[in-house]
Amino acid sequence: MQKPVRVRFAPSPTGALHIGGVRTALYNYLLAKKTGGTFILRIEDTDQTRFVPGAEEYIMEALNWLGISPEEGIFEGGPYGPYRQSDRKPMYREFAEQLVKKGYAYYSFDTAEELDTLRKQYEAEGKTFKYDTSTRLLLNNSLTQTESVVNKHLAEGSYVIRIKLPVDEQIHFTDLIREDVTYSTHDLDDKVMLKGDGMPTYHLANVVDDYHMKITHVIRGEEWLPSTPLHIYLYRFLGWEESMPVFAHLPLILRPDGKGKLSKRDGAKFGIPVFPLNFVNPNNIEDKALGFREWGFEPDAVLNFLALLGWHPSDEQEIFSLDQLVASFDLSRVSKSGARFDFDKARWFNQQYIMSMPNSELAIKMKPYVDTANFEETTGLKYLEGVAALMKERVEFVNEFPVKGYYFFKAPDYKLMMDNEGKDFEKKVLKNWDAARNELFVRLIEKTESVNEYNAVNLQQTVELFINETGLKFGDVLPLMRLALSGTMKGPGVFEMMELIGKDYVKPRFIAFFGFCNSFSLNN
Ligand code: GLU
User: Fold this and answer.
1) Which member of 5, 189, 232, 321 lies 3.0 to 4.6 Å from 132 by CB, making a disulfide possible if both were Cys?
2) 108: CA distance to ligand 1 center in Å?
3) Which atom of ligand 1 is nearest to the CA of 44?
């Protein structure tokens, strides 16, 4: 029988969670849900010097916002806890010592200064120093020192434990995405497993925890691929090879211009979010992150966008709910090559989600933004539903409703309109504006005002009649009505806008606007 799938997302709490990390979490989540398995969050904080306060909370908040919360984790608990590596510290030493006993690791006594000097010497000769199979017998460790020296260091506690990799051995493994991968120990180094302060390094803690947490699939970023041979040796040396997880290394996320890996700095550089939520590092307020959430993205749109950054379905479908992603997701359809972070595509996804959302939901979502915009006239949710219906195809983000559709909440700013549409306006409107025309529009205002039931259909009929009577064309009338109502040539249907804005507010706009036209044509 197949073992139940157990996957983990294992971030280090070193700051805001990069969007690449969120994608890793998502793919882990999708596999767990698809297979009826378990999604685990483990905090890898063995490097205490890089710990940033608030980072754990940030990670949890981001996953919760996106709706991909773990079932086991630092806040959820679970049968294989604790889930924070610093809380598991006492258990790692045993395995490091076990490796030494079996001859798969050794104590190393070189000081940081000594290793630094060596590094510099090598550099001066154009070479790179590695503590590895070729140098370890020349260095200060339990392979080269007498028993008494070794014992002295052990008694003082001045040592680290390093893995002892086999000399010149090829190591092969199959990665679910990268397929057959081969490394030679010649290119690897004898990495530290247990540090001087008794803390394990990432490598030891990661393998010990994956084993004890019964992880079946390690799905992580491509940057960890070179560490995988070392991890496989650890499974072998600790006698755990039978229960070794399978590996899947996700492709890089590339910068919007396709040149190189998307980094934290690219967010600032391109003026786009590359993090799920805003974040300010309390240790360094210059270290700030811009979030998708605060930008105005819907969590489902972000998930959809991220899912397709590196994974593609078997057909052309692009819009996926989380449930549909779970059903369709397959690690074998994750590509090897990097995926370009196309922010325009992210916006497009958001727009698609907005267009498909019920107006009642959009009304609730836009209300806080409308409230903070502090318009003079207050409106209820029913009215906001109307705004949603007319504007949802014209915005990319919910927070744009009161901006792009401000004229649903206050009279347009005709001066602003002149700035935006000045040329068109002068050409189309003022050129033909004269006293006779003004008189016609005064009649038009009266006509529309006296419509029985003030709705789009009736208003349209009335205006059509008026046009027939006066011999004007639609093009003489509608653009003016539109500008009067909204201050822009682009926007929803004129009669729909009139119906929603309502008679009491439409009339003063018409009067103000035609007054504006008059004053403008007199002045020029
Ligand atoms: N702590 C590592 C990270 O921050 C986890 C890598 C892994 O998943 O093994 O990305």
Assistant:
1) 189
2) 26
3) 1
Q: Is 228 in the pocket of ligand 1 (CB under 6 A)?
A: no
Q: Tens digits of per-residue pLDDT, 46-83?
A: 998 899 999 999 999 999 999 999 999 999 999 999 99
Does the domain formed by 411-524 have CATH 1.10.357.10? no
pLDDT in tens, 246-256: 999 999 999 99
- Please answer whether residues 142 and 198 qualify as being in contact, where contact means their C-beta atoms are separated by less than 8 angstroms: no
CA of 12 to the centre of ligand 1 (A): 7
Instruction: Say if ligand 1 is within 6 A of residue 46 CB.
Output: no
User: 43: CA distance to ligand 1 center in Å?
Assistant: 9
Quickly tell me which residue has 């040149």 as its tokens.
259
Domain 6-76+252-346: give its CATH code. 3.40.50.620
Ligand 1 atom nearest residue 11's Cα: 4
Please report how many Cα atoms fall inside a 13 Å half-sphere around the Cα of residue 112, on the Cβ side: 2
Q: Whose CA is nearest to atom 3 of ligand 1?
A: 11
Residues labelled catalytic: 264
Integer CA distances (angstroms), 413 to 139, 406, 418, 419, in order: 77, 10, 9, 10
Q: Work out which ligand 1 atom sits closest to the CA atom of 9.
A: 8
Token digits of residue 228: 């995988």
- Superfamily of segment(s) 85-250: Glutamyl-tRNA Synthetase; Domain 3 (3.90.800.10)
The CATH number of the domain covering residues in 357-410: 1.10.8.70
Q: How far is the CA of 11 from the centre of ligand 1 (A)?
A: 5
Which tokens hold the place of 114? 């000594």
Which atom number of ligand 1 is nearest to the Cα of residue 219? 8
Cα–Cα distances in angstroms (integers) from residue 471 to residues 51, 52, 310, in the given order: 76, 73, 60
- Whole-structure pTM value: 0.92
**Is the shortest distance between the CB of 201 and ligand 1 below 6 Å?**
no
Least confident stretch, 47-56, 231-240, 324-333 = 47-56
Q: Degrees (nearest 5) of the Cα angle 318, 319, 321?
A: 135
Domain boundaries, the chain: 6-76+252-346, 85-250, 357-410, 411-524
pLDDT at 225 (0 to 100)? 98
What are the pLDDT digits (tens) for 269-278?
A: 888 999 999 9
